[in-house]
Amino acid sequence: MVERIAPFGGTAKTRPHAQVVFESLIAALQADSNWKGGCYTRQPAAGLAAMGRAYAPWGFSQAYYLEQLYQAEGYPTLKSYLENYWDKVFFSFDANDLIAMLRTGIHGDISATPADNGNFEQALNRITVPALVMPGSTDLFFPPQDNAYEVEFMPNAVYQPVESKWGHCFGIGANEPDSFVIDSYLKQFLR
After folding, report:
1. Beta partners for 5?
2. What integer is the mean pLDDT of 119-139?
C-alpha cells in the first residue's frame, strides 16, 4: 500500500511492560472521583494531573532529569516543570480520549489478524517495503531492543536508533538536535 515506511517512537507490538505502564496511567486517571465511569460532566482534573505525574518519569529519560534538561526549556525547578509542563500537557486532553489512546497502545499488535493469527515474526516478515526503523535510544516505553528484534524479521528494514536524552519524547519536535538527526536520516532514506 505504501512505497516505504519510517516508524519511530513505537513498536509493532506493545510488550507486557509497556502494557502495565499504560494500565497504571489509566488507573491514576480513573481514581479521580469526578471520573464517574467515564461519564463526567467536567474533566477529572485531579486524575489528569495524577496521570501526568505518572507519565512524566516514562516520557523522558533518567539522564534528562539527572542533567535537569528541563531548565533549558524555562523551568527552573523540577517542581515547576511538573506543574507547568506536565499539568498543561495533560489538561489539554479529554480524559476519555487519553484512555482510548492508551487502550490502543495496550492492544497494539500487528500480528493480531486472521492472516497472522498471533505469529508476530510472520507478520513482520510480511512487511516487504523498505523500512527505516528509528527508536529513541532512551525510550522507556518502547526500548530500542524491541525494534532491533523486529528489524531482524523485516526483509528490507534498517535499524537506526536516535541517540537522545529525551526518552520517548525524542520525536515530538521539541528538541532541535533530535529533530535534525531524524530529518537527516529521513532525507537519506528518501533519496
Report:
1. 131
2. 98
131-133/157-159 β-pairing: parallel
DSSP designation for 158: E
Task: Report how far residue 98's alpha carbon sits from residue 129's, in angstroms, rounded to the nearest whole number.
Answer: 32
* Contact of 145 with 159, CB cutoff 8 Å: no
Q: Is the pLDDT of residue 148 over 90?
A: yes
Would the pLDDT of 174 be above 90? Answer: no
- Spacing of C-alpha 65 from chain mean position: 18
- Hey, what amino acid is at 78? L
- Calpha distance 56→127 (Å, rounded): 33
d(CA 180, CA 10) in angstroms, rounded, equals 19
Predicted model pTM: 0.91
Angle (deg, nearest 10), helices 95-106 and 16-30: 160
Residues 6+ apart with CB under 8 A from 4: 129, 130, 131, 132, 189, 190
Which strand (E) or helix (H) includes residue 133? Answer: strand 131-133
Is residue 101 helix, strand or coil? helix
* pLDDT tens digits, one per residue of 16-58: 999 999 999 999 999 999 999 999 999 999 999 999 999 999 9
